[in-house]
Sequence to fold (166 residues):
Amino acid sequence: MTTTTETMAKPAPAQDAGAIAVPRLDQQLCFALYSASGLMTKLYRPLLDPLGLTYPQYLAMLALWQHSPSTIGELGAALGLDSATLTPLIKRMEAGGLVTRRRDAADERRVLVEPTAKGQALRAKMKDVQEGLNCAMPLDRAELKALHGTLTRLVAGLREATANQD
Fold:
């Protein structure tokens, strides 16, 4: 008796005897967050390009508008970045005339960062950025607020869980 490939049913790879069951990609929270982050950055790009800002620079400016001057350490904590990542970003922003860096007179080990007049002037244009982004959101305000609350709790929990790993 001969069988053809047409009559033989091949099991799916996950169903092979002895195969290790792995989670499905589309069921992974980490992948959903990764995808959402990339797509958010992509949505911001055309809104920030006319302002001469990258997405990480935009986040740094938001933090500085909220609390300025800030030390590199404070800014890094607010953004979840280490100084090795943050320092080149701040140097590029300084070269672009958006921020200034100076040594803290009270403690010269600390570097203070604050927006320049040019950096402050960008703040007035952020309403357009936010409105442009809101138009692309597939969720209503209540859903966005609930999602923000959930993600804020998730980030706080993940920071706590990873605090001892460093």
User: Anything to note?
Assistant: Helices lie at 29-48, 55-66, 72-79, 83-95, 117-123, 126-136, 141-162.
